[in-house]
Amino acid sequence: MPAAAAEAADAAPRGAALIRQMGLLAVLREDLRTHQGALSRPGLQTLWNYRIGTWAGTLPPGLRQLAGLVYFLGHRFCRNVYGIELFRTARIGRRFLIGHQHGIVIHQYASIGDDCSVRQGVTFGIGTEWVPGQGPVIGNNVSFAPGAIVIGNVRIGDNVSVGPNCVVSTDVPADRSLFIPPPRVIPREPG
User: Fold this and answer.
1) Which residue ranges make up each domain of the chain?
2) Which keywords are on file for this protein (predicted)?
3) Quick one: how far is CA 72 from the chain centroid?
4) CA pair distance 130, 140, nearest whole angstrom
5) What angle do CA 84, 140, 174 make, to 5 degrees?
6) DSSP character at residue 133
7) 180 and 163 in contact (C-beta within 8 Å)?
8) Terminus-to-terminus CA distance in the chain, angstroms?
């Protein structure tokens, strides 16, 4: 990703900065619209729990602990029941869509831009090169199909589609589509 695009992506408010700029209720309403108003969707409930966790960090100490407890209990529930692990230390932008549940892991220091979506089995993580406080950086308008994995401190540009079961371990420029090769059809041996 060019340096100017990377700086612009980093400058957009995400995480607690987004909550401070827009206000918690405005962000929650936008999340509800993004998830088509379906309050029962596990992705929406997990995202709202994440938003409460990031909001807790902006509160005075007494309220911070109370909101932090709500986040902690919600995080455990979403991880153990829905199979979606989303830490409040991640930096997520606006209109993030968690389309399905189960097997979704978002690295604790991942940074995700606006208008992104993930589906079941998506993992953003760190490989063997751990750098404290850093994780994958995802641009705006990026979609991840089921089973996609992002490994390492990589940067994915804006307007990228990551196909099913892709493993991304290097930087991806903007305006790209990633797909794995199609399976080969091999005749069976007679017998």
Assistant:
1) 3-178
2) Acyltransferase, Transferase
3) 18
4) 24
5) 120
6) T
7) yes
8) 53
- CA geometry: angle 167, 168, 172, nearest 5 deg: 150
Per the listing, tokens 């994958």 go with 136
| pLDDT classification of 129: cutoffs 50, 70, 90 | low
Place of tokens 């991304």: 168
pLDDT at 4 over 60: no
Amino acid letter, 155: R
pTM score > 0.70 for this model?
yes
Q: What are 97-123's pLDDT values in tens digits?
A: 999 889 999 999 999 999 999 999 999
In single-letter form, the type of residue at position 68 comes to: G
One-letter amino acid of 22: M
Which pair of tokens denotes residue 50?
Answer: 């994440």
Beta-bridged to residue 97, according to DSSP, are 117
How far does CA 57 lie from the centroid of its chain?
Answer: 19
Looking at the chain, the whole-number percentage of residues with pLDDT higher than 70 is 92
Measured CA distances, 139 to 30, 33, 79, 181 (Å):
19, 21, 25, 24
Check if the beta carbon of residue 56 is closer than 8 Å to that of residue 88.
yes
The model's pLDDT over 25-48, given as tens digits with 9 standing for 90+, comes to 999 999 999 999 999 999 999 999
Say whether domain 3-178 belongs to CATH 3.40.50.920. Answer: no
CA distance 172 to 142: 11
Q: With H, G, I as helix, E, B as strand and everything else as coil, classify residue 124.
A: strand
